[in-house]
Amino acid sequence: MSNAREAKRIVVKVGTSTLTHASGHINIRLMEKLVKVLADIKNTDRELVLVSSGAIGVGMGKLGLRERPATIPGKQAAAAVGQCELMYLYDKYFSEYNHTVGQVLLTRYSLDDPESRRNVRNTFEALFGMGAIPVVNENDTVATDEIRVGDNDTLSAIVTQIIQADALIILSDIDGLYTADPAKDAAARLVPEVREITDALMDTASGAGSSRGTGGMLTKLTAGRIALAAGADMYIVNGRNPDVLYDLTEGKPAGTHFIAREGC
Ligand code: GLU
Predict the structure, then answer these.
(1) In the chain, what is the straight-line distance between the N-terminal and C-terminal CA atoms, in Å?
(2) What is the pLDDT of residues 104-122, one digit of tens each?
(3) 215 Cα–ligand 1 center, Å
(4) Distances from the Cα of 237 to the Cαs of 58, 125, 219, in angstroms?
(5) Distances (CA, A) of 198 to 2, 147, 175, 205
(6) Cα 21 from Cα 56, distance rounded (Å)
(7) Which protein residues touch ligand 1 with a CB less than 6 Å away?
(8) Residue 144 has pLDDT above 90, yes or no
(9) Which atom of ligand 1 sits closest to the CA of residue 151?
(10) pTM of this prediction?
(11) Quick check: 101 and 87 in contact, CB under 8 A?
(12) Whose CB has fewer CB within 10 Å in the chain, the N or C terminal residue?
């Protein structure tokens, strides 16, 4: 697929650092805008999946926690509170544009076990058939560290693979993949296109994420490997302005485009 204009089935992933303010509370303006753009893109006869992080971050904000809980039960409790709030808001905002969302919480087991994986795929297909927009997250309240997917970049790529989506769009807090860390190196340049995610490229990506989310460039490149191997193109774009999704679906270049080989 040469660009996202032809993509009919699209997975969009949004991370905690895009969805929330530094305080941990929801960035309402951004979330409303994101939903509005997604609802509009859905109106162009596409099938959309939204993979949304933010359960732990939003839970922290709601519970007044300044630091990410250190213990597993602490994180899980924050996720339980935050996931509710997230879905409440997605339901409310998408309803304003006459769209219906369905919550899909996945665990690594449900993605690894062949029968569960089939069930997951069938559920997505049924939701598409009903015109609903699946909103996906990891089931953080039950998944302990040893059995977690761990980050939603990877989760979104696995979903892309399972439902054979045409494109995966990762909304990040940076414009795309750079030749070096732009925060540290003024000579860093945005890479517009990547055709192969080599080990050397992986080595240049640092694993650091924000204090509220878990992803960094490394998890995005890992996601890219999964998506490209499944024949889906991946895009990393800056989610600060959700209008970038219009650019992509209208065939305009934005961020970094990871191009899957034809015939994958
Ligand atoms: N599932 C986690 C949450 O909703 C996010 C994982 C990630 O940041 O990638 O808080």
Answers:
(1) 11
(2) 999 999 999 999 999 999 9
(3) 8
(4) 22, 27, 15
(5) 20, 27, 20, 11
(6) 13
(7) 15-16, 53-57, 79, 137-138, 140, 151-152, 213-215
(8) no
(9) 9
(10) 0.93
(11) yes
(12) C
